[in-house]
Specification:
By secondary structure, this protein is of the alpha/beta class. 35% of the residues lie in helices and 24% in strands. It is built from 13 helices and eleven strands. The strands form two sheets. Strands 4-3-2-5-6-11-10 form a seven-stranded mixed sheet, with helices on both faces. It has a four-stranded mixed sheet with strand order 1-9-8-7. β5, α9 and β6 form a beta-alpha-beta unit. The chain is globular and about 65 Å long.
Amino acid sequence: ELKKNILNKFADPDFKDLMSELKQQKKECKKILNLDTRFHYITPEQVKVINFCENKGYDILMLDEEIKILNDYFPGFVSRYLNKEKNVALVDLGVGPCVKPISIFHHLLKFSDTVEYLGVDYSKSVLEEAEKYIERPKFSFLKPKFVQLNLNGLSVNPALLLSKIVSEQKIYLFIGSTYGNFEKEDSQKFLSAILNPGDLLIIDNETVFNREDLDSVWERYNKKIDFHLKPLYELGFSKNDFDWEYQFNDSTNTVEGFATIKTIPEFLTPFIEEIGLEIGDTIKIFRARKPNPEMFKNEIKSLAKNMDIELHTHGIYSIALCQIKEK
């Protein structure tokens, strides 16, 4: 039964791809194995941790405070810029737990009887769960579509993404700290390519000045590491098989989470060649940029030649609401 479970895991294309990446990096003699974005939502079991229907578990990735900030400022923002004579599309870049757009859908009904929703994520499991949730009767005003695209590295062909959107008015959501998970240059290149005059863009992120600003969210980061290690737990590892560590880079305002293997369960030793990991291996589980509010605002302003921008900061969270005036 154990062998069957392990073979089934390696038959999963996402899991096989993940382990192949680890092996390749070990072959290249890398001291730290970098899978900081590859761990996110790769298995159905991970997705079950987040209950879409009951809005439970999403605090692993974003806190209620972030959702509250979005709801505080979104209604007034769209009322100033949306035209009731035109259809509206909400483009969710990185669907994740899906609570972000759900909390603001009803505000858009003031402008249109129907709302086009395009959910973009690279996890098939997440998209399937989100589709089941959004197709419930209470969201009958939505015209939902879901696209499986790999936003990691932000190498998406902008024309491919834009071809999926019909409505004249577009609202892009890049929230839940998704923006900070990518390199600044990658994010700016991608967003600059898809944004056009008249588009609305909403980005939020944790914005901090130093490591001490993050003291209130270390518990969440513990949950993140635990959550992102679940593919290995499903293989047979446990939390006790790893040592966890965080590092904060003051010069780049970046926090990174690492897991080092301290033990390998004895029953996995016959499969050690397939697994490709050994005691002492350190894996970078996540990396996220946390620019201070002024840095964050300047980064957003560089996306277009001219834009209207509102920046609201509460505690360590900032949200930028923008309308593109000129590319």
